[in-house]
């Protein structure tokens, strides 16, 4: 029987086959011999390529950058870098870190305040419930601030400043102001609720100062030192004077840090910056030397014993709490120092209780969250072209990071005890509400970046589908 030219050969199809995958026409008549020869040539070529690949693979050592391990590490690095440079990175860092700090703070407030509440014949969850209500209200303020346009934030600057100054004056009137731990800086609102106006003074100074410096920059007036200082520094000193009348040295330190942060962002020359810093340092030294309690706090920096009269009791027991925590802590609720040994365990020294119950891992986690929030704030301030956004974002970042450093430094024995709470973490509604509003400011500014705004617009319902429909060309009616 004669051989069929279109028969399959060696598992494939011969040239000229109507089923040939190469699409050769039916008229081609090629015998099976060239096919076998072609298969043999391809087999020898494939074997040679495999041998060369094996030889090349054996020649490359583990340090060759072309090895799979190196390429995998480089690929992961590039992917992480692209993720970090995305437009919404700052937005998610601010939102995620602030909410995690607040949630963890609620847990620690409940754990650290139970014994204190029972000592005062109150329910064990008394302080936690008040903090939870403040967190709910603060979340509402955060959402409100994150949705407000920049123009409305600027419009709030002057009313907020005047209202804060008015309340701070009321604090000094006998019968209206109330003293807590020797500092007269509270106003009772009725029932268990009270307000500390000086906490809102930080937010007022940031918004008003940012609006002032932005308007002066638009008019090119910041090149003159008098326009850079006046009226920013006098108004800041007015707030500082009202705060110091109540004896609150810690809040005055944070307000001074905010002032220096605004001057730094405005590009104050070194001589001017050093002059204001020297005046503030001189006033601070005078205020410390004229107060015995502040002098004792200064001497307790780095102390390892209680002192002859127990002056360093709080500082030393804060170190005891951190030291007994170990790597992973004694567990939630298992703190020993909160049983009357450590004063203010749920406010100024809540970080020490966190170290005792969560250990080094817990404290490093808190530090990492604050570092992420600070980095995101700097990122927002550095990427914007709006001077108000730059000054306001830088002021808020300075406020939160400086207050965290002062609080944690005091707990660690590296700084004097200033009596300031840990932002978003410690107990205190008066401190939590303006801080969460300030975080909402950062979120609003992060959303206003052009790239972030476009990325968020693409995630709205229906936008992606409409965009895809615009990209698809309509086919002719007869086309399948």
Oligomer: single chain
Q: Summarize the helix and strand pattern as letters.
A: HHHHHHEEEHHHHHHHHHHHH
Order of strands across the main sheet: 1-2-3
Poorly predicted runs: 1-43, 52-63, 463-480
What's the end-to-end separation, in Å?
46 Å
Taken as a percent bin, the fraction of beta residues is under 5%
Quickly give the structural class: mainly alpha
Mean pLDDT figure? 83
Overall 3D shape: globular
Q: Main sheet, how many strands, which sense, barrel?
A: 3 strands, antiparallel
Helix run count: 18
**Helix amount:** 55-70%
Could you tell me the number of beta strands?
Answer: 3
Radius of gyration: 34 Å
Task: Walk me through what this model shows.
It is globular and about 55 Å long. Strands 1-2-3 form a three-stranded antiparallel sheet, covered by helices on one side. Helix 3 packs antiparallel against helix 16 and helix 9 (232-245) runs antiparallel to helix 10. Helix content is 65%, strand content 3%. The protein is mainly alpha-helical. The protein is built from 18 helices and three strands. The longest helix is centred in the C-terminal third of the chain and has 34 residues, at 350-383. Residues 1-43, 52-63 and 463-480 have low confidence and may be disordered. The relative contact order is 0.12.
């Amino acid at each position: 029987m004669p051989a069929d030219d279109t028969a399959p050969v060696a598992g494939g199809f011969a040239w000229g086959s109507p089923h040939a995958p190469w699409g050769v026409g039916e008229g081609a008549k090629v015998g099976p011999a060239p096919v076998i020869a072609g298969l043999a040539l391809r087999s020898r070529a494939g074997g040679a390529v495999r041998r060369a690949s094996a030889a090349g693979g054996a020649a490359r050592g583990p340090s060759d950058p072309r090895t799979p391990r190196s390429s995998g590490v480089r690929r992961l690095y590039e992917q992480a870098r692209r993720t970090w440079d995305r437009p919404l990175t700052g937005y998610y860092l601010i939102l995620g870190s602030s909410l995690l700090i607040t949630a963890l703070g609620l847990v620690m407030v409940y754990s650290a305040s139970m014994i204190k509440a029972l000592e005062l014949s109150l329910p064990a969850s008394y302080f936690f419930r008040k903090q939870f209500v403040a967190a709910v209200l603060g979340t509402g303020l955060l959402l409100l601030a994150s949705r407000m346009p920049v123009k409305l934030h600027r419009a709030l600057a002057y009313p907020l400043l005047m209202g804060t100054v008015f309340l701070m004056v009321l604090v000094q009137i006998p019968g209206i102001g109330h003293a807590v731990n020797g500092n007269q800086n509270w106003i009772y609102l009725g029932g268990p609720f009270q307000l500390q106006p000086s906490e809102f003074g930080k937010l007022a100074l940031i918004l008003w100062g940012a609006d002032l410096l932005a308007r002066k920059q638009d008019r090119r007036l910041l090149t003159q030192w008098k326009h850079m200082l006046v009226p920013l520094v006098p108004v800041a000193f007015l707030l500082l004077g009202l705060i110091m009348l109540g004896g609150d040295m810690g809040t005055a330190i944070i307000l001074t840090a905010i002032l220096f942060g605004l001057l730094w962002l405005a590009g104050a020359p070194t001589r001017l910056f050093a002059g204001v810093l020297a005046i503030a340092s001189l006033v601070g030294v005078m205020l410390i030397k004229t107060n015995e309690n502040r002098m004792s706090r200064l001497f307790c920096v780095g102390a390892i014993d209680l002192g002859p009269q127990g002056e360093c009791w709080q500082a030393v027991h804060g170190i005891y709490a951190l030291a007994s925590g170990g790597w992973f802590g004694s567990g939630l609720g298992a703190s020993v120092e909160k049983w009357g040994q450590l004063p203010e365990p749920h406010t100024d020294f809540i970080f020490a209780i966190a170290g005792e119950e969560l250990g080094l891992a817990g404290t490093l986690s808190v530090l990492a969250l604050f570092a992420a929030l600070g980095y995101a704030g700097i990122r927002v301030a550095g990427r914007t072209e709006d001077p108000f956004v730059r000054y306001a974002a830088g002021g808020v970042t300075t406020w939160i990071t400086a207050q965290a450093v002062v609080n944690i430094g005091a707990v660690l024995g590296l700084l004097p005890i200033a009596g300031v709470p840990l932002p978003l973490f410690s107990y205190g509604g008066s401190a939590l509400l303006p801080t969460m509003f300030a975080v909402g400011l950062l979120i609003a500014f992060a959303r206003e970046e052009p790239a972030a705004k476009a990325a968020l617009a693409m995630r709205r319902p229906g936008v992606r589908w409409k965009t895809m429909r615009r990209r698809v060309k309509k086919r002719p009616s007869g086309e399948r």
